[in-house]
Design a protein that fits this description.
heterodimer; A: alpha+beta; OB fold (Dihydrolipoamide Acetyltransferase, E2P); 3 domains; 6-stranded mixed beta sheet; 10 helices; B: mainly alpha; 2 domains
């Protein structure tokens, strides 16, 4: 079922959690709402679920306006960050709860619960209580409970948030393969870009109650639509300055500023260079390269991380190189090299973001 | 025979290692606690004060009650006046406690689960009976329902008696015991959060199902604690009830009022005998309450892991 959000706003006192948000979530897709805390992503999810009422705007499931429809009648499955399992009930009773309140017959409930226990690989655990399970197992029970009554929509609020790294990665993979099997329209909230990119078909990046960008993980990563998105999507070198003669000056580098980014002469700009989009060479590379001194080389990990300073130590730059490339260069701390970015993203900088990232 | 020789990689002389441990111990003592003497003094002060104002009176109540033997103790309790007081006290508690339980659950549910205007005012209002002196609480009802009160002429015209009768005693008790269940539950439900209830709603449960199957099992120990405390106060209330009861012997005297009357009439043994009933009730209440609090604390801890 397709979910449509139309012009939704929500205030909590003086705080504007959502500001006129519109969004279409296509049938059968797994969508991630990605953003920092306070960006409104959880509020949006709760409004889609009916756990919060929007101040303005409407929510549609397919063609049906469900804005005034109670959560109970929306036919959704909801998974909470802290599982929200019923502590006084066994695993069996937890999973069966949705079926019992929907008046399923006992002879239907038992096979359905056992089937779900098989699905979440917790067969034989039905008589245990939630406090006897590990975090990952509890979250799987929460998923089974949400899936039990065959909802049309699955909503997950930071479903991996409370788990440790290893369990998190496993559960992530498991949810993705589960979605490939049952193709239910699903929305999950996360603040972890890696998680969103790995699991989702479609990523919605949110900031301060608004949608900054939406698209497939590839689209969002390759073409960030704003300074915020670029900054949010992982490690990046940030440079500030003023636009002069239509060009942004980063150390000795001059980068032409395109009009579409909204920069005009004399405006402040913020330029982003991703560490893996910088080349290092022993020789100068024309006018778009600048000299820098190597300060540290870290060869642990899948790439070599090189920290450099350009402009007499004034301008720090982080670079990631493939091991093979670094082997031919054989960098050492103190080496003077030439760096040149393959891609620079320049945005007219709103004053606030200059302050916050400097 | 084999001998086991343990060698440490870095040789450390015994005196040196002992000195280090002693230093560490002394440092720990200095950092975390007061001098020994001050510790002892504070403990002695606390125990002494408690003994003097809590334990000794408790002991006196029972020793006075049984001072003239078991026979007189029995006679003091098994007589028409005392039995009437016991019955009245039980009846008042039997009516007031369930009403305040229902109210307390409703108020706690509303306050912890919904946002509405006047929420702050409601919370303050719940605490009102704790802030107002019980005698004033009783007087309020006399001013409202007494012969010269606001509703006095109306009540007289219909020949309804509230003040100096059972309804007045129940009203005053209701007022005084009003906050116990609500306060207990508000604190507990706030710390527990609404996630499980939200989960139940997303699974298709209606309000009643959510309350009966999720909320009630979760709050049961905190609720019982509230009920126990409410009951103890309902049975033990003196001030408010004294103002509205009229002290009609064998009719409108509750146990606390009966104790006072007997005492004023120099019937010390009888007075302490009846008082020992209330004291005994208080001790039981305390025991149950401690057990329940232990249970709720454990439940909250489990919920967090």
């Amino acid at each position: 079922m397709q979910i449509s959000v139309r012009g939704v706003s929500k205030n909590f006192g003086a705080f504007r959690a959502l500001d006129n948000v519109s969004l279409d979530i296509p049938q059968g897709q797994l969508v991630a709402l990605l953003g920092p805390s306070g960006s409104g992503k959880t509020t949006l999810l709760r409004i889609i679920a009916g756990l919060e009422a929007p101040d303005e705007g409407r929510i549609f499931y397919g063609d049906q306006d469900v804005t005034n429809c109670s959560t109970r009648d929306r036919g959704i499955g909801f998974v909470f960050q802290h599982y929200a399992l019923f502590g006084h009930m066994t695993i069996f009773d937890n999973i069966a709860f949705g079926l019992r309140v929907r008046k399923w017959k006992n002879e239907q409930i038992r096979p359905r619960v056992l089937e779900l226990l098989r699905l979440i690989q917790l067969e034989g655990m039905e008589k245990r209580f939630p406090s006897q399970l590990s975090g990952g197992q509890r979250q799987r029970v929460a998923l089974a409970r949400a899936l039990a009554a065959q909802p049309q929509v699955m909503l997950l609020d930071e479903p991996f948030g409370a788990l440790d790294a290893k369990v998190r990665a496993d559960l992530r993979r498991w949810i993705r393969s589960l979605h490939d099997e049952i193709h239910m329209t699903s929305v999950f909230v996360t603040h972890d870009q890696e998680e969103a990119f790995e699991v989702a078909d479609f990523v919605v990046v949110m900031n301060r109650g608004k949608i900054e960008q939406m698209g497939t993980p590839d689209e969002v990563f390759a073409r960030p639509a704003s300074a915020f998105v670029t900054d949010f999507l992982g490690r990046v070198n940030v440079f500030h300055g003023r636009v002069q003669n239509g060009k942004a000056q980063i150390g000795e580098l001059e980068v032409s500023v395109e009009a579409e980014h909204g920069s005009v002469e004399g405006d402040t700009f913020t330029a982003y260079i991703r560490p893996h989009e910088v080349e290092i060479d022993r020789e100068p590379h024309g006018p778009e390269s600048m000299q820098a001194a190597v300060s540290r080389v870290n060869r642990t990990g899948s790439t070599v991380k090189v920290a450099l300073f350009a402009q007499d130590g004034q301008l720090p730059i982080d670079v990631e190189l493939p091991h093979e490339r670094e082997a031919t260069l054989n960098l050492r701390a103190g080496d003077i090299v030439w760096v040149y970015p393959r891609q620079v993203r320049v945005f007219a900088a709103p004053t606030a973001s200059v302050e916050s990232s400097s | 025979m084999k001998t086991l020789v343990v060698t440490s990689p870095v040789p450390v002389s015994p005196t040196q290692s002992q000195a280090t441990t002693r230093d560490a111990k002394r440092a720990a003592t200095r950092a975390t606690s007061e001098p020994r003497l001050l510790q002892w003094f504070l403990i002695a002060l606390a125990v002494g004060t408690m003994g003097l104002i809590l334990v000794v009176p408790l002991f006196v109540v029972f020793s006075e009650a049984f001072s003239k033997g078991l026979e007189l103790y029995k006679a003091s309790i098994v007589n028409a006046e005392a039995m009437s007081a016991i019955k009245l006290t039980l009846l008042v508690a039997f009516v007031a406690v369930p009403i305040n339980t229902v109210f307390g659950v409703a108020a706690a549910w509303a306050i912890t689960r919904f946002q509405f205007k006047g929420k702050g005012a409601l919370i303050t209002l719940i605490d009102l009976p704790f802030a107002v002196s019980p005698v004033i609480s009783g007087l309020i009802f006399v001013l409202m329902f007494g012969r010269r009160g606001i509703f006095g002429p109306f009540l007289q015209a219909h020949d309804w008696k509230i003040i100096f009768a059972l309804p007045g005693i129940i009203l005053a008790t209701l007022f005084v015991t009003f906050p116990f269940v609500a306060r207990q539950l508000i604190a507990f439900m706030e710390s527990q959060g609404a996630e499980e209830e939200e989960a139940a709603v997303t699974l298709g449960a209606n309000g009643f199902q959510t309350f009966w199957r999720i909320t009630l099992p979760n709050i049961k120990w905190a609720l019982l604690t509230g009920i126990i405390l409410c009951n103890a106060r309902a049975m033990g209330e003196f001030g408010a009830v004294s103002v509205v009861s009229g002290h009609v012997r064998g009719q409108t005297n509750t146990i606390p009022l009966q104790v006072e009357i007997l005492y004023n009439e120099y019937q010390y043994t009888a007075s302490f005998a009846v008082a020992s009933l209330l004291t005994f009730l208080g001790l039981i209440t305390l025991g149950i309450k401690t057990a329940l609090e232990w249970k709720t604390a454990r439940q909250l801890k489990e919920g967090q892991t």
